Amino acid sequence: MGGVKTDVDGRTDIPGLYSAGETACVSVHGGNRLGANSLLDTLIFGKRSGRDAAARAKRMELARPSKKALEDEENLVADLISRPKGSGRRISEIRLELGQTMDAKVAVFREEAGIQEALETVRRLKEEAKTAYIDDHGSVFNQDLIGAIELGYMLDNAECTCVAALERKESRGAQYRTDYPERNDEEWLKHIDLERTDAGPEISYSEVTITQWEPQERTY
Amino acid sequence: MAEYTIKVRRFQPESGEGPYWEEFNVDLDPSLSVLDGLLQAKDREDGSLSVRCSCRAAICGSCGMKINGQSGLGCKTQIGEAQEQANKMKAATGVTAAEASSPIGVQADESSNLEGTGSGPRTRESGPETSGGYERARPGAEEAAPIVIEPMGNMPVIKDLITDMESTHWTKIRRVTPWLLPHGDPPEREYVVEPESMIDITQSMACIQCGACVSACLSMEADPDFIGPAALAKAYRFVGDPRDAETRERLHDLAEDPHGIYDCTHCFSCIDACPKGVAPMDQIMRLRRRAGEEGIEDPNSGHDHEIAFTKIIEKKGTLDETLLLQESFAPGLKGKLKPTRRAIREMIASIPTAIRGLRTGKMRSLPKLIPGIHPKLPDGAQDEVQAIYKHAEEHREEFNIYIRGEEDVEPEPDVIEVEETA
After folding, report:
1. Which of A64, B9, B84, B414 is surrounded by the most beta carbons within 10 Å?
2. B397 φ/ψ sector (left φ>0, alpha ψ -120 to 50, else beta)
3. Cβ A135–B47 below 8 Å, yes or no?
4. Mean pLDDT throughout B191-202?
């Protein structure tokens, strides 16, 4: 199952940033995560991440973001809050369209044309989000603003899901491609890694570490 | 799909104005929740409408609110049911929950400008313009009362339906030391306990910290320092835990605090409000019972009252109310009145109640005011009552009379067999 790629101590590619639980992908589950197995992530890797992060924090100085980074964030918030009504679509409309698109085309059953359409929709929505407006201009408990910021992350994630689903031309675990219903170990027994670039998610591959349990056909 | 009007008590802290009512028309399946209705209004009409929520499945405890005056979870109340409730309330009382709502000042933060005018929030007639040609008018719906949605009670309101739970909930939860206090070193592996010994506290473990009971608590309305239903239920979760070694200290602490376990008035509101069947009041009563067993003096004479009640029924079969009063305050007397000073004070304080009882006809005969005159049951029936007592003593079991819902319990036999022991 996908997620933020980590090592067995919850470390990500960004020094000092950890991920554990539902967001993380330590790659202990294979193509699907069976029921109740999220405990493995929360209990084992939650503990390991916390321990490693605490040890690391003791050795390092508190990171101070640059003034420019802070200003950029402030500007982002100010821009979102100050967009006048009617400058574009409502944030909530975009979120709804995103959810409906992903549900219809990139959910349980997937096929090339559908995923491609979804990807195009997501990319259009990303553009539309740049001018979308919120109603709440206040500074107390502004859930509208949080919703707008979260929408950006949702769009990024949706784009990654589409790109990876399109790339993997086989069915495995939670991915079921109606146009490629068989598992294909020869070509696809590997991880698809995505990295964020200005041009969108960039694809690379990494090897699967197989220890005690060989991947097997699901027969139930 | 069906159309509903939800009437929300709103408060925008930066507007410089007090709370106001605003109506939204929403369009959703009756089986969806009140929270779904609120989120639709937020999405379609006004993104500044603020409500905390996360799981939408009654497990995270975020969306505590009052719906038609009743505290509960927005996500666990179906909007169709809320509509029926609103209609019933209007039909029965002639007013909606909004009109019956308490004045704003009651739950306003004192730092805000909400101090009550006693007239309830004003209504904003013209809501924000609707988008996408959404119809505001509800044809043929003249008879439907609006579903009234308010922030939780007993808490300062931060914004719309978002309340500040820190001072009214979390501080009180921390107050009861909500963690296990075992003696000795922790075991090498996990603690091992008999599953049966944990059954007693499973009900209090079901709490999701939503605050609905705190919102509904009538005692807390009168005494904001009351530790309250949620925190006391949490306290019982540890008092009843066989692994905890500080049970005595916990009970003394909770009983001796003037805002502790004896501050509950037994009104059942928290039981009605709780979406998880925790029955906080019942946990408070368990704490009282345990405190009584510890020999802790109950400032309300509640424990003595309970004992007096049981004793009188055992002796007489029906209640000798005058004797009950006497025995509750000065137990064990037989012509030798040796009550505590507090008992004398409370007996004197109860005289006006007795006079009122006489005046209103609740107490009908003067002889009944003399303790001990009340007759026993006739024809040896008293022996049967005592047989029931004997049976109960021999089959002592703690049972929880307030648990609701479907449980895997054998139905009680209708007739208690007393013949063989009688």
Report:
1. B9
2. beta
3. yes
4. 88
